[in-house]
User: What shape does this take?
Amino acid sequence: MSTRPIGDYALLSDCRSAALVSTDGSVDWLCLPRFDSPAVFGRLLDERAGHWSIRPRGPSQVSRRYVEETLVLETTFRTPTGTAVLLDALAMGNRERGHALGTSSPGVLLREVTCTVGSVTLEVSYAPRPEFGLIHPVMSAVRGGLTAYGGSHRLVLSAPLPLEADKSTARGEIALRAGQRLGFAMQAVSTWGETEPAPWRPGQIRRRLGDTIKGWRSWTHSHRGYRGPWQEEVNHSGRVLQALTFAPSGAIVAAATTSLPESIGADRNWDYRYTWVRDASFTLQALATTACEKEKAAYFGFLSRAAATQLERRVDLQVMYGIGGERDLSERTLPHLSGWRGSTPVRTGNDAWRQRQLDVYGELLDAAQQTLPQGEWFDPPIRKFLLQAAEAAAHRWSEPDQGIWEVRGPSRHFLYSKLMCWVALDRAIGLGPALGATADRVTAWEDTREQIRDAIETRGWNQHVGAFTQSFDSSELDASALMLPLVGFLPGSDPRVRSTVAAVAARLTDPRGQVRRYLSDDIAAEEGSFLMCTFWLAHAQALTGDVTRAREVFETALVCANDVGLLAEEVSSTTGEALGNYPQAFSHIGLINAARAIHRAEGDGHPTSPGRV
Assistant: This one.
């Protein structure tokens, strides 16, 4: 099984797929050609599931960073005899710049190592294992590298040194002196294609690596919309969101991985390589902060097209979709994989797509409000779809569901679900002219919105607990109640909001200062604390005017980032170790939105616009 800490990994992306690289220069995760494709390198989930490492022989001191304004990774190895610098990237399309980033990515992993001081002996170990380790390919030497056959893809490795292949693993060793450089590249092409591409030449690798750096920098230069505290972290998180974007559709995956557990050794192991409607309004607010207007439009366009016709057939709006708009995300297990630290089962697919979550109507209509340029109307198909979403919220808000956290127990009347149905109608009322809604329909929405408000304020508030609670008539705390001021349901000055924020801070915060989603659920294994909830707490504290405490909580969450600024989904309450799928878009979204709220609270006393997440 794999035991390397999750936070040991850095992310590579070509805005179509993702790789994870460890501190010792090993690519232990790579799915091609899409984020949700089977892994070619899967050592992250099982030592036998494939890797590609380039590292010095013997001990070394390691430091790493992203090349400035990019997601090209630079790892520096300092050995007793010299220093080597390794650059890693997933290649962008040739001369892709700005908003075009990722539109024609070739699916090539680039690696270049340079000896900068003295001499360094390097070891290369190349062990591709397509389909999550099921395939041990047949390797053949070709001029300039190796090819590997097996399954639906051929892998073409460009290598500037001879590699000895044995049992589907190729190894080599070479000594470099100061100034010498080696370039590697791996391409994945269809096994059944007519021609096999030739290995890339060293000059070609160098040019494409440089071009990829320019591509990332051009994107960064056009997305500098935020000026304020934690500016570097906010801008970096914007790049992470871009890295988790599937450029052909505009979809953003929740994370780059599957089955990294929320509880070590237990079965809280889900596949997060999909797009959740739940994340829509949070994501669009974050994209607006980092000046990603085109990405906002693409993301909302993906959601509206992926969900088209569902409401027309009177079925619930699906909570998540594949990055190409797929709806059937049926879950299956991979029993041949031992999992990260023995956490099984390893899963692909996610059966949460079958769940009923009423909050999605609010997130969708809030996203629509954030996307629509002022004074414009939606196109007729989108207008019809959003009208149907508002009507669904109006008719179904009083029914039970599984809630934002996708509980796999009985349905309940979750407060957050009711809140987001209120948001759905509130935003639909504001969008009435753009939706072409009649006066009678808007009046009906206003009446239902007030019914939901009354229900939340009477059945969601627990005077004994001193907080809005997880579900109606319950006494259980839930961090999602922090969303009440964030979406504009109540102002931060409301005594009940202040009391709820204080209760979450006092009772859901672990000894390390991180916030748990809730205290218990129907799954026996205990999970870690949820970084998004910690950022929510900081955001809510800013809205209540407690800016000093908001800053402290924000910084507490920020220290959970690894050495290259990446955040996991959760952290262990006992050790502080990263847990869950990684890197987690939700966590980086929370960072961006909380930083913006705190900055506004410090600047003018108005942390967020009314009615916006």
About this structure: The longest helix spans residues 439-460. The radius of gyration is 25 Å. The chain has 14 helices and 26 strands.
